[in-house]
Write a structure and sequence with these properties.
261 residues; alpha/beta; Trna Endonuclease, Chain: A, domain 1
């Protein structure tokens, strides 16, 4: 099934799964940095760590600015998904939900994340990029509004457009970056987040993730460890390290990650 035709209840998770199964999209999020790990759909209150915080963090990354720095740093994203049709029209732009999105980002900040970002993902119908500029004119007013509000709050803002279609179980027509035209550089990183400080309870949560990740058998048994993602199974209450291109079930209890809420 095409992502644009998927059930809206699961589209965001399916889209995140697709991003982390395709290296061009994964590396776009890393932004040229070395990454230790990415963690996906992580509840703030695992094991009571988050106290009164009850929501999820869509994406957490542990990154390294080598060779400019010897320190690791953390970045978080709230993900929103919209659809762009090949005729330039749009669906699911969520134009009336900017206030709610800002509230969600404030929750990340209050939780202690030092680098808080909105990631607007645009699933483009096949041939959209051939027929239209990005962003298309229909998005202009909304982007300006979001840019203004995110700037005033100090949050980062990234766009991730990619053209996607399917034939059977195979992807085809994927386009994310046009290097010759600096396409992605122009459209991706609109705003950088302010430094809100690395604080609890976020610091405790990522410490638990680091303990899990570092405790997994070494590269001999996991040759592609940096290309697997950390997820949390709500059914058996465990972290898991999976290949998001091929794995949708918890390796421990076999529950479906996509359907968990």
């Amino acid at each position: 099934m095409r992502l644009s035709e998927s059930n809206p209840l699961y589209r965001e998770k399916l889209t995140i799964w697709r991003i982390f199964s395709l290296f061009p999209l994964l590396s776009a999020l890393a932004g040229g940095h070395v990454w230790r790990w990415f963690a996906i759909n992580i509840p703030m209150n695992i094991g009571g760590v988050g106290g009164t915080f009850t929501s999820d963090i869509d994406i957490i990354a542990r990154l390294h600015d080598y060779p400019n720095s010897q320190e690791w740093f953390y970045k978080t994203w709230e993900v929103k998904v919209s659809i762009l049709l090949k005729n330039g029209e749009a669906r699911s732009l969520k134009s009336g939900k900017t206030k709610r999105t800002i509230t969600q980002l404030k929750s990340y900040k209050e939780f202690g994340s030092p680098d808080v970002n909105l990631l607007d993902v645009y699933i483009c119908e096949s041939e959209f990029m051939k027929n239209n500029p990005f962003p298309p004119p229909i998005m202009s007013n909304l982007l300006n509004k979001k840019y203004s509000e995110l700037t005033s709050e100090g949050f980062g803002y990234q766009l991730l457009p990619f053209e996607h279609d399917k034939e059977g179980n195979n992807d085809f027509g994927l386009k994310a970056i046009r290097f010759g035209q600096n396409y992605f550089q122009r459209t991706s990183n609109l705003l950088s987040s302010a430094n809100f400080g690395f604080r609890q309870p976020f610091s405790r949560l990522v410490n638990d993730i680091n303990i899990f990740y570092d405790g997994i058998s070494g590269f001999k048994n996991h040759p592609h460890k940096p290309f697997r993602q950390i997820v949390y199974c709500r059914n058996c209450h465990t972290f898991q390290l999976i290949n998001m291109k091929t794995e949708f079930l918890c390796p421990n209890c076999r529950d479906n990650f996509i359907g968990q809420s």
